[in-house]
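Sequence in, structure out.
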Amino acid sequence: VIDASDHTTRLIPLPGERPLLYSSGDLEVSVDGGRVYVSGHQFVTIDTRGDTVVRSLDLKRPITGIAVSRDERRAYVTHIGLISVIDLERQEVIDTITTGVREATGHIIGIAISPNGETVYANTCCSQLLIISAETGAVVDSVRVFQGPGEVAFTPDGAYAWVVNSFERRFTVINTSTLKRAYTTSIPGWWPVGITMQEASSP
């Protein structure tokens, strides 16, 4: 944890062993900033007021990314070829979404929930952005994107989804109404993965 006022750092020990093979670190901050949800070997909830781990859930499989709904009722946790849906109050898996891509190439890195909570977008290793109904858990569509899965972020109005494509070093911007590419833009640097959208941002 980095203190933005004086740039000092402190560590929060996480439960469990080192992250499993194919796991990657990811975290989500609650809307009010009171909790941080962290992936790794386990799905961990941290209280930011005391920097303490208050809950942990061992999903028994590698975790590659997480997305938490704005009302903090559900978390979507990605694995290789699968997505676990977690009831955050009960801390249990209530659904498992099969992505329909082969496990060998179905490594999911980026996942995000639309601002209205109705749709989940998941970015896979096989250059497919999966469109998932949050109500039914079904994969309802897919969009072809560039190679290399990275994170996904929606504009605040939900009109566009920005998708990081690491291998190509570019963003693919998707019009969420038409599910067509609005445009692409290059990213400077090497191996981009993450993206965060500011509340005032628009394409």
